[in-house]
Amino acid sequence: MRLLSSRRRHPAAKALLLVAALFVIGAVYAAVAPTEQSAAEPNTSQQVTKGKELFSVNCSSCHGLNGEGTSQGPTLVGVGAAAVDFQVSTGRMPLAQPGQQAPIKPGEFTNDEIAALAAYVATLGPGPAIPDSSQYSTDGLSAEEIARGGELFRTNCSACHNFTGQGGALPEGRRAPSLVGVPNKHVYEAMLTGPQQMPVFSDQVLPSQNKREIIAYLNSIHAEPNHGGLELGGLGPVSEGMVGWAIGIGVLIGFAIWITARGARAR
């Protein structure tokens, strides 16, 4: 009995039990964890590889082989996947030749190719991800929230895009594009990434909820029917005042000249 008791308390037995326990844990982890990773990592890796190939052929001449930027194009390190999705989906990129402003045109890439390019650029440095549909959906917003979106738009956006999002001229031959008919996703990405001359409205500056409210406001005013009359570019009191001044004061001046001329003839 003493011999059996001493064997049970022998240090070697404890070490063997510990090794056996570690072996069992390792075997269970090896059987479960690699299976989950192998289902996701190859797809991600393949997408990034495809994106890098597309980038090398279509983008590297301006942005550099590693997205570091050149004299022809800015660095893409840290711009994030959202910027790529916006620029490429709207046809602004790739540019035929560098210019003051990238024009909107039909896209040259499929959705899968755009996703691959965005995935590759996202690996160059941390940046805004492509927003989820819930972030730019306007479903369920109240009239009060939409009205707040109008206030935010007039405060932050109307100086360039005018009060109804019709677009407008900017200095040095540039132009703020019209927002009529622009998909919600692209409006959200534009606020998130600040393309070209537009400032960046990150989620720290303008929370996602406020972006949704702005988008809802734009959708609401663009859905309003035209009840007749001249829209005058949708500029509000600016264009209306100019027309009133030009026509109203012009008529008064013409009438005054006519009275003066008639009075001179009477003498």
From TrEMBL:
Its main location: membrane. It is found in: Cell membrane. The chain crosses the membrane at residues 242-261. Heme c 1 binds at C59, C62, H63. Its EC number is 7.1.1.8. Binds 2 heme c groups covalently per subunit. The keyword Endoplasmic reticulum does not apply. It is a multi-pass membrane protein. Residues 1-30 form the signal peptide. Heme c 2 binds at C157, C160, H161. The keyword Translocase applies. It is an enzyme of class 7 (translocase). It comes from the Bacteria. It catalyses: a quinol + 2 Fe(III)-[cytochrome c](out) = a quinone + 2 Fe(II)-[cytochrome c](out) + 2 H(+)(out). Keywords: Cell membrane, Electron transport, Heme, Iron, Membrane, Metal-binding, Repeat, Respiratory chain, Signal, Translocase, Transmembrane, Transmembrane helix, Transport. GO terms for molecular function: heme binding; iron ion binding; quinol-cytochrome-c reductase activity. GO terms for cellular component: plasma membrane. Residues 46-125, 144-222 form the Cytochrome c domain. The cytochrome bc1 complex is composed of a cytochrome b (QcrB), the Rieske iron-sulfur protein (QcrA) and a diheme cytochrome c (QcrC) subunit. This is Cytochrome bc1 complex cytochrome c subunit. The lineage of its organism: Bacteria, Bacillati, Actinomycetota, Actinomycetes, Propionibacteriales.
